[in-house]
Specification:
The protein is α/β, with parallel strands linked by helices and about 350 residues long. It is built from 12 helices and 18 strands. It has 2 domains: about 180 residues, Medium-chain alcohol dehydrogenases, catalytic domain (Quinone Oxidoreductase, Chain A, domain 1, Alpha-Beta Complex), CATH 3.90.180.10; about 130 residues, NAD(P)-binding Rossmann-like Domain (Rossmann fold, 3-Layer(aba) Sandwich). It is globular, with a radius of gyration of 20 Å. The protein binds zinc ion (ZN) (2 copies).
Length: about 350
């Protein structure tokens, strides 16, 4: 079968033919992948950006964690899913035994592994994975839209960490797939949302078209001007999804006293920050990463309730055989979500 493999701890990945992997262990299933999205972390892992060195001991492996598919085989002890079921992958595999897992905080698991970053993932015709990480899909949810579950769950978690409530004024920085999902979820929960980007015409226009109340291109106005123009008062919440360190300082500067700034982007460089602004303004700075099982369930519900809306986030569709073209597109600002389809379909 075809698979996009990361073979060496350095830049690049290879699209290669590989044998079907070893037989299923207890608790595992084999899934025929039907749709798999290219995530920012796939781009970082492909380019071998500095914060992805953690993958080195796990190579070689097949990349890809945002996928849906059909169960093709199950180990004898598996009862959660059956052959033929449509599923989406929850990529976080927790150890179940560390202090965090034992205390019911699987998000803090020290032995946490991600399908597609620590073990073989979904940029392949088929993948072997734990049955516990396969979530059944409701009838009528198309598999391409279902492959948006993981990024939408990440967005939902960010909105939860930021404590967004109905009626809040929320600024979202960065109109990539995560920022767009954050804006959509915050808006759906009754917040008033301003989504800002930088030279991001296509994605901002799409966001506005998808119902985000206000968008701003920070190549034309400053963040402070955009906030003043739209809200006329300082926002309650700022959520940063750019990965550009100065965005955090800019967001903190426009936030109201006592407001919350949640950092979601993965930052390649450190930031120097005026903490007096944080302290005297009694502002809260929080980090949001990954997703939770509740977030996953909510993401599936939201996608199933309005698949037509979320399908618009998929701006490019390519066969897995053109994975490198897909990665090149995803690196350019114009693409929102690039979806790859194994089996040439
Ligand atoms: Zn992802
Ligand atoms: Zn654990």
């Amino acid at each position: 079968m075809l698979a996009l493999r990361k073979n060496i701890p350095g830049p690049g990945a290879e699209l290669v033919r590989v044998d079907l992997q070893e037989p299923l262990a207890l608790g595992e299933i084999r899934v025929d992948v039907r749709a798999v999205g290219i995530c920012g972390s796939d781009l970082h892992a492909h380019a071998w950006d500095p914060s992805y060195g953690f993958m080195a001991p796990f190579l070689p492996l097949t990349l890809g964690h945002e996928f849906s598919g059909i169960v093709a085989a199950v180990a004898p002890d598996v009862t959660e899913v059956s052959v033929g079921d449509s599923i989406v992958c929850w990529p976080t595999v927790t150890c179940g035994t560390c202090a965090a897992c034992s205390a019911g905080r699987p998000g803090g698991c020290e032995g946490r592994r991600i399908i597609g970053l620590h073990r073989d993932g979904g940029f392949a015709d088929s993948v072997r994975m734990p049955a516990a990480n396969a979530l059944p899909l409701p009838a009528g949810l198309p598999l391409d839209v279902a492959a948006l579950t993981e990024p939408l769950a990440v967005s939902i978690n960010a909105v939860n960490v930021a404590g967004v409530a109905a009626g809040d004024r929320v600024v979202v920085l960065g109109p990539g797939p995560i920022g767009m999902g954050i804006a959509l979820v915050a808006h759906a929960r009754g917040a008033d949302v301003l989504l800002a980007g930088f030279r991001d015409d296509a994605r901002l226009a799409l966001a506005h078209d998808m119902g985000i109340p206000a968008v701003a291109d920070l190549a034309q106005v400053t963040l402070a001007e955009a906030v003043q123009d739209y809200f006329n008062v300082a926002p309650d919440v700022v959520i940063e999804a750019t990965g550009r360190p100065p965005s955090v300082a800019e967001g903190l500067a426009v936030l109201r006293p006592g407001g919350v700034l949640a950092v979601v982007g993965i930052h390649a460089e450190p930031l120097s920050l005026d903490l007096n602004q944080l302290v005297r303004g009694k502002k809260q700075l929080r980090g949001a990463h990954d997703s939770t099982s509740q977030g996953f369930a909510e993401a599936i519900e939201r996608l199933a309730a309005d698949p037509g809306l979320y399908a618009r986030m998929i701006t490019h569709r390519l066969p897995l055989a053109q994975a490198e073209d897909g990665f090149a597109l995803a690196r350019k600002g114009a693409a929102l979500k690039v979806m790859l389809f194994p089996g040439g379909g």
